[in-house]
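@here heads up, posting the sequence + SMILES for the adenosine-5'-triphosphate run so it's all in one place. Ping me if the SMILES looks off, I pulled it from an old spreadsheet.
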Amino acid sequence: MKFDIEMNQVTMKYGDVEALKNINVHLQPGKIYGLIGRNGAGKSTLLSLLASFAEPSQGDLTIGGENAFENAAIMSQVTLVYETDYSEETEKVKGMLEAAERYRPNFDREYADELVKLFNLPLDRQVKKLSSGMQSALNVTIGLANRSSITIFDEAYLGMDAPTREIFYKEVLEDHTKHPRTIILSTHLVSEMDYLFEEVVILNQGEVLIHEPIDELMERGASVTGAAQQVNTFARDMDVLSTQQLGGTKSVMVYGELTDEKRKEAERIGVEVGPVSLQDLFIHLTSEENQNEITK
Ligand SMILES: Nc1ncnc2c1ncn2[C@@H]1O[C@H](COP(=O)(O)OP(=O)(O)OP(=O)(O)O)[C@@H](O)[C@H]1O
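bot reply: prediction finished. Complex structure tokens:
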């Protein structure tokens, strides 16, 4: 079975709050997706719909062509890892792994044991007595070892320190290569995780602002630096996301196709065109002043 995710005109309301508005998204199986958006953009809401924690208020959500909500066959193939409150969890680490092994069809216990070692998790300690970073490491251990066709991490790494997050990122890449599946990473740590993404979905105020392969998105953003007048000339027909000026030197972040012609123009008039980071693009594409102007 191919686990395509299709969202067609999906809207999700909580009372008066429209958390998602007319979402149309197709996620192909086997890719690593980055889901980014500012606070309250609707990321967790979208992911909770994928995990069947709730049903859309309107629209269709199908996984593998089937309606996903309360569909046991589909749900056994979806894992959502999120920050969990373990303050009452008396089960030990070992017991949590055994439970996952019992209930998850593709759970790989050997791999889970490897991850437990990598993350230095004490098998005999009660989960409520783990540090918050260790609890996150336990969550991602189970999330990865489940080997679900759709594996979603919703900011599941927040308690982890930087070296532990690095281990997690490396495992995502390596295990995805060995066992390709759809992995969705929702994060605010954009600059740290951008190299993991094949495609990026940017949510903004409940709507999909951008969904495309990361390479194509990155090609559309550029910094242009040079004498202020020349930079103004170059950027006259482009979307300018941000501007910095120091004396006579100006630097702008532009968004739009940089054709060969445009690149030649840059050379001719002596302005320097350089790359921008996904984080910078994200910040400026979703800034208050730009969000009404950039449409794609
Ligand atoms: N259970 C709920 N009841 C009412 N409103 C909710 C509920 N859950 C989310 N919302 C609202 O829906 C909107 C989207 O929230 P959501 O948690 O999906 O955003 P998010 O992108 O995950 O945000 P963050 O990055 O801050 O975690 C917000 O306005 C939020 O207040």
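MO: The pocket of adenosine-5'-triphosphate is lined by residues 14, 17, 19, 37, 39-45 (CB under 6 Å).
MO: One more: The CA atoms of residues 121 and 138 lie 7 Å apart.
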